[in-house]
């Protein structure tokens, strides 16, 4: 009897045992306290993540706002360069970095703390290498934009802006790795503080470089790079000196050079999953330039996209929280807790979607005045806000479902779902409504709504058909490898 108890004491409860896992089917054992605890966890994660997303987004917005005071050409060039940088660089790095949601999140749940540092180093290496060809693309942005049929004068201005943004791409790659590393271990407040400090400092840096240095719009691009590097350095110092990271960051290791193909097998689909979605929105703005009265259509769609992106930071925060909670619980071998996290996350995002959509509809007649004083533009924006409110509600649901996919490691499935939803369904519907039925920009945005609905439907079916006990076992295989080493069973 004593021998049996000794053996049981050596077995880590964090290593998924199929017999244990399969006995935890359903949510019938969930108590009210469990629901409240999970709710508090998600809100405490989502709040800071929303703040970080908004603050990082504001860096680009602040730079463009400063450039706007230099003239119409400078503003057009900076706006085009910012969009180009997002499509060809930032979105790709965010997507590849989100593979850490799976690797770090599940390793943290399994209490394989040292592996978080290894995964982060591996991601840093890969993303920095990827940044090199992206920097070459940015260096030739002006020529590429002219080749794509854009105005030569604006393209030249955008190319100059993009070249001065090149240092920011390497900082952004490292920033994504640090952010994912910290948030997967539920350590989100340092990110919020560093992003807040950086954003405030960015205003001063922009003012100096744009108006005082003589660099003009190039100064705004350089300010982006400086601010991103400041943010990275602050987080790197925190990781190095903070007691909360002493187990997850143990210094640089050659182990990070191993299993790079394994990281890429998740990172590439992760990038495709995100980029396919972002590119479709940008494509709608480009297509609006082919409509009758292209100046009005492009302006309104750009206003709509900017407004939509800012509001989208809220469900994006819930998506990040969902990814963390699901990956942590699966890594810990608790599929029932992962299912509870999913239910809570969907309830939160549906509530948020209803509230925000209602506000957007009620304020639709006034929002346009924030961007223009022309009555035609204001009225058109008011009409678009109704569509935006509907798309925000659906997009919130798909964001949480995408967070579930990242937490489980379903990025390849998510990439195929997005490919089908946006490029086989949504964009064709938008083009048909805009150009065949002559609904204009509203038709293009209806296509986006259809795509979001299809994406949410595909991911919902996958989530509903999932065997969570098997997902916990897959997480165990991902954390420990095909065979759990003897040392792993002796932890704790």
Automatic annotation (TrEMBL):
GO cellular component terms, A-Z: membrane
Protein localization: Membrane
Keywords annotated in UniProt: Membrane, Transmembrane, Transmembrane helix
A Pfam short name: MatE
Record InterPro entries: MATE_euk, MATE_fam
Domain of life, per lineage: Eukaryota
Annotated signal peptide: none
GO terms (BP aspect): xenobiotic detoxification by transmembrane export across the plasma membrane
Membrane topology field: Multi-pass membrane protein
GO molecular function, one term: antiporter activity
Residue spans crossing the bilayer: 45-68, 80-104, 125-148, 160-179, 191-210, 222-242, 263-287, 307-326, 338-362, 377-394, 415-437, 443-465
Keyword Translocase: no
Annotated family: Belongs to the multi antimicrobial extrusion (MATE) (TC 2.A.66.1) family.
Protein name in the entry: Protein DETOXIFICATION
Organism for this UniProt entry: Camellia sinensis var. sinensis (China tea)
Lineage: Eukaryota, Viridiplantae, Streptophyta, Embryophyta, Tracheophyta
């Amino acid at each position: 009897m004593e021998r049996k108890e000794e053996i049981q004491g050596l077995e880590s409860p964090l290593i998924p045992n199929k017999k244990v896992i399969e006995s935890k089917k359903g949510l019938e054992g969930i108590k009210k306290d469990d629901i409240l605890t999970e709710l508090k966890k998600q809100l405490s994660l989502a709040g800071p993540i929303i703040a970080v997303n908004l603050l990082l987004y504001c860096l680009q917005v602040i730079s463009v706002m400063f450039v706007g005071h230099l003239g119409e050409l400078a503003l057009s060039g900076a706006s085009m360069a910012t969009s180009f940088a997002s499509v060809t660089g930032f979105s790709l790095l965010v997507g590849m970095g989100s593979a850490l949601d799976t690797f770090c999140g599940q390793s943290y749940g399994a209490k394989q703390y040292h592996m978080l540092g290894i995964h982060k180093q591996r991601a840093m290496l890969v993303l920095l290498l990827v940044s090199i060809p992206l920097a070459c693309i940015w260096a030739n942005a002006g020529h590429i934009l002219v080749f794509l049929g854009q105005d030569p004068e604006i393209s030249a201005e955008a190319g100059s802006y993009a070249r001065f943004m090149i240092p920011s791409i390497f900082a952004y790659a490292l920033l994504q790795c640090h952010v994912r590393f910290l948030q997967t271990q539920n350590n989100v407040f340092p990110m919020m503080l560093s992003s807040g400090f950086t954003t405030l400092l960015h205003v001063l840096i922009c003012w100096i470089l744009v108006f005082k240095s003589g660099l003009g719009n190039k100064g705004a691009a350089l300010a982006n790079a400086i601010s991103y590097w400041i943010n990275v350095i602050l987080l790197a110092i925190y990781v190095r000196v903070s007691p909360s990271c002493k187990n997850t960051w143990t210094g640089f290791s050659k182990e990070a050079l191993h299993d790079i193909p394994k990281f890429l097998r998740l990172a590439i689909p992760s990038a495709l999953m995100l980029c396919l979605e972002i590119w479709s929105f940008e494509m709608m703005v480009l297509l609006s330039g082919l409509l009758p009265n292209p100046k009005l259509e492009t302006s309104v769609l750009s206003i709509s996209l900017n407004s939509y992106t800012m509001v989208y930071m809220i469900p994006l925060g819930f998506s990040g929280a969902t990814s963390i909670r699901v990956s942590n619980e699966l890594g810990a071998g608790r599929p029932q807790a992962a299912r509870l996290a999913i239910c809570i996350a969907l309830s939160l995002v549906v509530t948020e979607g209803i509230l925000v959509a209602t506000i957007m509809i009620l304020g639709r007649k006034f929002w346009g005045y924030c961007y223009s004083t022309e009555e035609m533009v204001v009225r058109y924006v008011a009409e678009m806000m109704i569509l935006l409110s509907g798309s925000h509600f659906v997009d919130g649901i798909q964001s949480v479902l995408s967070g579930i996919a990242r937490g489980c490691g379903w990025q390849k499935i998510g990439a195929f779902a997005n490919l089908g939803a946006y490029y086989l369904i949504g964009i064709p519907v938008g083009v048909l409504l805009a150009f065949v039925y002559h609904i204009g920009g509203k038709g293009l945005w209806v296509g986006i709504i259809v795509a979001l609905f299809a994406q949410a439907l595909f991911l919902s079916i996958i989530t509903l058909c999932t065997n969570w006990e098997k997902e916990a076992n897959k997480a165990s295989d991902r954390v420990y490898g095909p065979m759990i080493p003897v040392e792993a069973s002796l932890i704790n």
